[in-house]
Amino acid sequence: MLTMQGNSPDITELSISAWFYRNRTIAGFDNPARSLYVSVRELLENSLDACEEERVLPEVSVLLKRAYEVEEPQDVLGSSPEIFELVVKDNGKGMCKRDIPVLIGKMLAGTKFTLRQSRGTFGLGGSLALLYGQVTTQDPIEVVTGQQGEEFGHRIIMRLDIETNQPEILREETVDKSLHEKGTMISYKLQGDWIRSKKRIIDYFAKTAIIVPYASLLFETPEGDVLRYEGVIDKLPSSPRAMKPHPRGVDVELLKKMICSTRAVNMKSFMKNSFQRVGSSIAENFLTYAGMESERIPSTLDQHELVALMNALAGYDKFLPPSPKSLSPAGIDVLAAGVKRLKPEFSIFKQRAPNVHEGHPFIVETGVAFGGELEEGINIYRFANRIPLLYDERSGVTYRVVRSLNLKNYGFKQDDPLVFVMHICSTKIPYKTVGKEYIADVDIVRKEIALGFKECLREIGKRVSRRNRVHKQRRRESRLAEYYTFMAETLSSVLERNVVYTGLFDQSWGDSK
After folding, report:
1. Parallel, antiparallel, or unpaired for β 497-503 and 166-176?
2. Angle between helices 125-137 and 32-54 (to 10 degrees)
3. pLDDT digits (tens, 9 = 90+) for 183-207
4. d(CA 150, CA 426)
5. 255-288, pLDDT tens digit by residue?
6. Residues 407, 64: Cα–Cα separation, whole Å
7. Is the Cβ–Cβ distance between 119 and 174 less than 8 Å?
């Protein structure tokens, strides 16, 4: 923190970490129960990302155990904050020794600030979880990591310097390991409320197992219970690619940055080399539309021309849509395998075609499951970039779409056992909060979700209707069989003959006594 003095009142400048420490509630760290849930979620997601980037089937273990109790009175619900130790271990690539302090101990530093789909969005979730642990316990963080092919791993004990947003190494050493071992383990202490967060955390693991059925997850609770979710498929989703910006998704500041770093000698080559899906003809047509010469040197544009260029980029309607190669949808097979854990009778999944919101591509995947062992009534499972969304369900766009559906049109009732599954992937999910809990009610997103659910309902409605017709026909045949059996037995009694009934419309009469 920097303080400047003068004739005016003192001016204080905060570092990034100091600001988020003072405003951590906006990221979900607003009470011990939710903070414990968010901490588990952030570290698990980082581990899954590390494994998927390495293209290995994730094997992630999470251990949450009580360290010691906090001397605070219980509240009216009978719970009070405690100190827990959280240990998360994965089989990802591992980290280089020089990268550990920056990746773990510095906010807004990471590998996810590209136009490529990833679970993390802001580069602070994991670091903020570790910071929360430090400020509530004053204990350091332990990181053990190693990469395949190396003879030794690395163990670092560190702290986070809040005021400078810099890591502070307390101790480091090498650890023995085999050449094939790799991965990372993070261990630290934090304050939490297990009683209030237990249901949410267990629900989070169950829903994560649905969206990543290729992962093997293990969670040991403070009571010593072990939840295991073994991988049910061995297929990873396709890996997303880092892409250039789309012309409609840039502002003046980004334009200035791109022009400062470009090697293009004229505006035509700048358009072709700096933006995705812009070729020679589109570049020339756009520059004509913008009233700018193709041979103009990019670095000579002044502020007013940059603003005019940005407005022209936003108004030109002949750019190709953004490439979906930066996205990695879960996939119909993966979603179907995940939902099988719920043991429904029928399930249908659909993937919508890529669409665009504010210059960023997105893909919506929807599914509807019915019957079987599902609970009665409507349940909604929401996912974004393979992250389960558990809080603020009624505020999200998915809930509003489901509420607007007329289930009677598809042969269903409100109390039928139905599960609606929605997964959206994008390079920029339109979250309403930094805590990544629910998605804004954006028109184009709402439309895609609604169309996906309606398509699923039509198809699953036909299957249920077909099944009902078969059941109705069988019940009718059963009643007829009972009737003919009764008639045969009655006639046999009246005629004093033995009657052998072998089936509907198939009967033979025995000999007289």
Report:
1. unpaired
2. 140
3. 999 999 999 999 999 999 999 999 9
4. 35
5. 999 999 999 999 999 999 999 999 999 999 999 9
6. 42
7. no
- Amino acid of residue 116: R
Same domain for 299 and 190: no
Chain-centroid distance of CA 368 in Å reads: 18
Q: What is the pLDDT of residues 419-435, one digit of tens each?
A: 999 999 998 888 887 66
- Answer whether residue 234 is part of any domain: no
- Co-location of 210 and 331 in the same domain: no
Q: What percent of the chain has pLDDT over 70?
A: 89
Please count the structural domains in the chain.
4
More confident residue, 9 or 188: 188
In DSSP notation, 356-392 reads EETTEEEEEEEEEEESTTPPSSEEEEEEETTEE--S-
* Amino acid sitting at position 203: D
DSSP 214: T
Q: Distance (Å, rounded) from C-alpha 421 to C-alpha 449?
A: 10
Question: What's the average model confidence in pLDDT over 199-226?
Answer: 95
Nearest alpha-carbon partner for 201 in 380, 40, 64, 423: 40
Phi-psi region of 389 (alpha: psi -120 to 50; beta: other; left: phi over 0): beta
Amino acid in position 434 = V
- For residues 386 and 436, the model is more confident at 386
Q: Are residues 78 and 42 in the same domain?
A: yes
Q: 């979250």: which residue's tokens?
A: 431
Count of Cβ atoms closer than 10 Å to residue 406 Cβ:
9
CATH number, domain with residue 305: 1.10.8.50
Helices (H) and strands (E) in the chain, counts: 12, 18
Task: Give dist(CA 263, CA 122) in Å, integer.
Answer: 29
Read off the pLDDT band of 76 (50, 70, 90).
Answer: very low
Q: Is the pLDDT of residue 227 over 80?
A: yes
Closest CA to 72 of 84, 60, 87, 83: 83
Structural element, H or E, at residue 466: helix 443-495
